Amino acid sequence: MERLTGIETRTVVMGHLQRGGSPSSFDRILGTGLGTFAVDMAARGKFGHMAGVKNNNFVQVPLSVVAKGTKTVPLGHNLIRSARSVGTCFGDLKLVN
What we know:
Layout: H1 2-5, H2 14-19, H3 25-43, E1 49-54, E2 57-62, H4 63-66, H5 78-85
Antiparallel strand pairs: 1-2
């Protein structure tokens, strides 16, 4: 790819990048599916869009929608509680030694 485009390329394990930690089989399948969908979008000329998942289907989302405004997650949300339970720090709590 680098030889064809003249742009530096690197290999990234998408499951690890997207979800953190060692990639599971689900992470690998998700990363492969999103990557394939993104390449298909580019082949169809759908630039300015992001590959996403909605209702267990891959979808294209305009970047203007993705980057519109601030998106917050309530502090009591189950994903926040789950992340904290495995040691994720959001920088909002003072750690005591």
